[in-house]
Each structure stands twice: as structure tokens, then as C-alpha cells.
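Listing S7. Sequence submitted for prediction.
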Amino acid sequence: MKKFLAVVMIISTLSSLLAFFPSCKKEESEKPAEEAMNLSEYTIVRAMRASSNLSKASTAFRNRILASTKIKLPISDDWYKEGEAPADSVKEILVGSTNRAESALAKEKLDAVEDENAFIIEVSGSKIVILGKNDEVTVRALKYFATNLVKASETENCLSIDAQYSYVGLADMNTTILYDNLVEFRISEESVVYDPGEYSTKRAIYPTMVQLNHQSDKKNNGTLLATLNSGESFYRILRSRDNGDTWEEAARVSDTYNKDINAGRMPFIYELPVDMGEFKKGTILLAGTSSKSDKNLTTITLYASTDLGESWKTLYNIDYGGGQYDGSVQVDLGVWEPYFIYDENDGRLYCFYSDDSSSECDQKLVYKYTTDMKNWVGKEGIKGANGSRSTPFDVVACEDYDFRPGMISVVKMNNGKYFAVYDIVVYAPGRPAGVVNGISGNPDFYKIADSLDSWDVSDPGTLVKLEDGRYMGLSPWCTYSGTIGEAGMLVVYGRKWSEKTNYDQTDLFLSFDYGETFIPFENPFKYVTSLNGKNTYCGYSPTLLFSEDGKTLYYMNNTLSGKNDQTTRIVMVQIDIIE
């Protein structure tokens, strides 16, 4: 990306490093360590009155050591009965300002350093001291220790540290975000993906993106492709070959299958991960809604490209429904917002989407699937695309007719379960706008299922919320990395805070326990959803995508463009995850 606004935590040496870092597995050419420090002999000790964040970080520190060395260290606070102080020979890793004499001696050295971001890591006899000027800096020191000094080898698990080791460093607190689970984030400068122009009346919303990872010509892997709802009668295909720094238009895709209705709404772009039917792995798929206000028809139409998005073929309709207008009265009867996910367990490509056509409820979430990229299976099997309609399978169909679940996205997690997030909108006459079961703001909900075809359909789901009760509403999205810790990292987005926040953007919600709890991550984009009494459409239906290795999060959203409070552009940041 361009110049980083946030870079990796920088450690500056303020005192001499008194010894080199020998590896645990000794080689002939290496200088031997004065003392081999076997990790399994240590206990992690933290101050009894340590802050909640430092206590959590100490536990995460223990878990990091366990993950890399398979050694589970005991962890305790520093309390002991009067007259029963632990012997000097007891091996302890002292975290923060403990009551041990070694912590006090290290603090004296640290007090001589004026910078408030200083920390010390020091071996003192049988103790290892990890101490910062404050608890936040101590957490940084724990991250440094776990990343640089804990080593595993084929023969033993130990510390890559000399018995005379003493290191004082500076933690740059302003350039990365570090959580108490020791996961660290680096945020790049914002780049512009698409801007309709300062004086345009066009609104850029519904961006989606894919990073190519299945191309036969390997040099094309890593290319980013994006598309959006630009208020035009076609889809713009945008491409970046430099990891999102710059973008170019690769193609424009029109609907040549349906007559007298136009493409251009609610697109989803996807790379086929396996051979399927006549299409090879690496084929790029595009699905979106075609419609026209004076035609009582909407379709979810499928397109394909085999040349990196340069040219496209319109294939067929996955489903169709009514239109937005019935005579002069606006009604919603159509099909919207497709989302693809492939399941390697059953070899199916699933298309999830919103369906307005049912008489059972105002809107519901549904899916069809294919195994041959030709036939899409619904409840009655396979039927014609524009003749007899095969009824899709249900995912969310609320018992309250006026509830409108929509904008679904689905990911598979390390535990084998599937996490789906969606909003529920209410705007029925005579009812409080946006209130769902007493919860205001068109809130976002989630469901977890054992498989992609085993949803508890009538259950409206669980509210996506933080431990302090705050929650988000509208335009949700989720993505997942399975490479960050045992449970991976789940990221959930919602357009706005749902209570008492003047309709500003939410934080991103992160979960490191399969969606059981969420913690906030400050949204890199600043936008307002209401300005001059109007809905700005900022933050409307973003996209979040992890790289193939799960260590980089691409986040694309829309913010105001120029002077027009209704014109939005598409922007992106790259968030690197540093474990």
C-alpha cells in the first residue's frame, strides 16, 4: 500500500543488549548460552491488583507460549502469606509491578528513562522481569517477549535468552493497535477505488471484492477485483495489481440475457475455487439484480469471466421475482443481494439472497445451490429459470410478517460451523420504524448452523452486540480468518450504532471465540449516515475480505464524495494482522 499511517511496533534500544540470542537447538558454529532456560520450569506471576487488561494479556501471553512450545505455564498473582515469600531459586516470569524484589530493581532502572513508553525485559537470577512504564506498555513488552524470545526446537522448548540479558526498549504506542489478546493491527492509508466525481449525482454503494487465488497462471494470483452499484445500467469491474494502491477499470458488464431490464444493482463478485461443470477453477463469477422500474420483474443474473475480468458472458438467471412497482404503487416483490459460498463438504456452490416474492412474510432470506454451474436446486429440485420457478430453501423467515431480514453474508469457522449475519428491517405502516422485538435501529442479527442447509428458519437470530450492550444496525457484513489463534478471528460490520449516536458509523466487531463474545475495533473510516436531514448512504453495504493467508484484511466502504451530500465514493484500507 502507500505510506502507512500505522506501522509495525518499533523497538528502540536504549541500553546495550548484553548478550546475543542463541537458539534452543545448539549448532556447532554458535556461541553457547551461559544457561539454558527451560520454559517448563517457570510460573507466570502478575501483580494481584493488575488491571483487567494486563490480567487478560498475561493469560494470552501464557496461551501464546503454549501454542508455540506446547508448554502450559502456571499463572498466578504475586500474593503470599507474611513470612512465606517464595525462595529466590523459584523460577518466575514477573509481569508488571509485582511485589518481588527483582521487579523493584527493574523499576529503578526504568525510572531513569524519561520516555513514558519505555519497557524493560531483564533476567535477574531465577526471575525474568517484564515491566513497562504503565500497563499498556507492559502489554507491548509481553508481545515483544512472546514474538522474539520464545523459541521451539526439535529437541527442547526454551527461551532464546542469555542469563545476563537486560533490554530496555521503546514501544511506539501510536502506530499500531494492540489488543489484550496480543493480536496487533496495522492500518494502511486510504485508497480510492471508484469516485463518480465531485459534482456527480451518482451514488456508489454495494461494493464487493475478491482476491484471486486460484488462477492457472500463478502470477495473476493476488490481483484484486471489485465491482459496485454505481447507479448505472451496467457493472463496472475495477482491478488492482498493486495490492489496492491504485485501481483501473477492467470492463463494464451488461445483462444480455434478460430483455428490457437493466443490470447494475447489488452485485457480488467471486472466484470459483474448483472445477465445476464446464467452468474451470479460477473462473470469475458475478451475480447481481437486474430490474427496471416500469417492469414488474427482477432477476438474480449470473455472469462469468475467464480472462481476469476483461470480458464477460451473461449466463442465465439463478432466480427471479416481481418488480418494485405494481402500477403506480411501489411494492417490493423481487430478489436481491446475492452472496456466494462454496462448501467443500458437499461440493456445492450456494447462492444466498433476499426474497420478497413470498406471501408468507414481507421478506425472507433464502438460498439455492448448484453442483454443475448449470442447474440451481430449490425445494422442488430443478426448474426453468424463467418458466416454472423452483422455490428456494429458507434461512430466515420470521413469524412476524413485517420483519424483513436482508443483506446476508456467511462464513465457515474453524469449528466447522457456519456464521451468518443479516439485518432485520421494519417499515410497515402503523408500526414503529426499525423496531424488532423491542430493539430499535433495524438491528443486525446472526445465526450459527452446523451446515449450510440446516438453519433454524423461524428463529430471528441473536443480536450482534458488545459486552457493554452496544449493538449495530443495517448493512451488515462478516468475514473470517482461520489462521489467527485456535478459534480464528471473526469480523462483523454494521452501518450505524443503533441507539443515541446520531447515526454515525459503528466500530467493527471482532470475535476470537466463534461469535460468543465481541470486542470493538475503531472503524478506520469516518462517515455520517445522516446529513442536512438526508440519508447520505455512507457506509451502505461494505465488503470485508481476508487474504488467502488470513493475515491481511481488506476493507472497502463508501464515504462522501465532493460537495454533494448524496454522492458517495468507494474507498479501501488494508489492515495487517500481526500475531
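Caption to Listing S7: primary sequence and predicted C-alpha cells for the chain studied. The longest helix spans residues 52-69. The CA atoms of residues 426 and 432 lie 8 Å apart.
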